[in-house]
Amino acid sequence: MEVADITWPEAGERAGAGVILAVPLGATEQHGPHLPLSTDTDIAVALCAGLAARRPDVLVAPAVPYGSSGEHAGFPGTLSIGQAALELLLVELCRSATATFERILLVSGHGGNLEPLRRAEALLRTESRDVRGYLPHYPGDPHAGRAETGLMLALRPELVRAERAEPGDIRPLPEILPLLRAGGVRAVSANGVLGDPTGATAAAGVALLDQLITDLHEKTRHWWPVVVPERTPL
């Protein structure tokens, strides 16, 4: 269930002890010539929705579609709010959310959000707020490559320009990381791709999405076990 689709009395009824509010954190940034700017947001939303389908105690908040995407500056359409603004947004959002919901799960689809996410999480936990951050990890290309292309073929195939998919910089990430930190993605890839999206399939994307949702479910199961009501003896 999505929080934005219910009324305030319904939100109050659902906000009992142990309810998890899952907040998708995305980005609006370039993903090569073949994927939409919404890619990271779409993936984060899908992960939260998948978790909610497996846990009845999860509500999904509206997505945050802007993140820290400065490394993609120079590609038209990229909209970044930077690390400081994102950290402040998360802190204030979670302070507000914990007035209603006991547990907050921040699910980021963009790796560039990690540092502000971790800082916000650490600060909020010092305030005794039950906030956890999650960033999916999967093998393969770092950005707009086969993995993300497969996920988008599974999630929103109508937005994938498959005919425009082409390799970018295919060197291992550790090899190009100094260049990325110094000059952003433009310094290593003219088309914005880090990897090779050709050969991506929707079937592979479906399998990967299920794997990521399972991992998220397992993480939350350990963080917040599902409470099973005790049965009254007959």
Describe this structure in words.
This protein is of the alpha/beta class. The chain has one domain (15-221): 3-Layer(aba) Sandwich (Rossmann fold). It has seven helices and four strands; from the N terminus they run H-E-H-E-H-E-H-E-H-H-H. The chain has helices at residues 8-14, 39-54, 82-97, 114-126, 146-155, 173-183, 202-223; strands at 20-25, 58-60, 103-108, 130-134. A four-stranded parallel beta sheet has the order 2-1-3-4, with helices on both faces. Helix 2 packs across helix 7. The protein is globular. The two termini are 34 Å apart. Mean pLDDT is 94; it is low at 228-234.
How would you describe this structure in keywords?
four-stranded parallel β-sheet, 234 residues, alpha/beta, disordered C terminus, Rossmann fold, 7 helices, globular, single chain
List the helices and strands and how they pair.
Layout: H1 8-14, E1 20-25, H2 39-54, E2 58-60, H3 82-97, E3 103-108, H4 114-126, E4 130-134, H5 146-155, H6 173-183, H7 202-223
Parallel strand pairs: 1-2, 1-3, 3-4
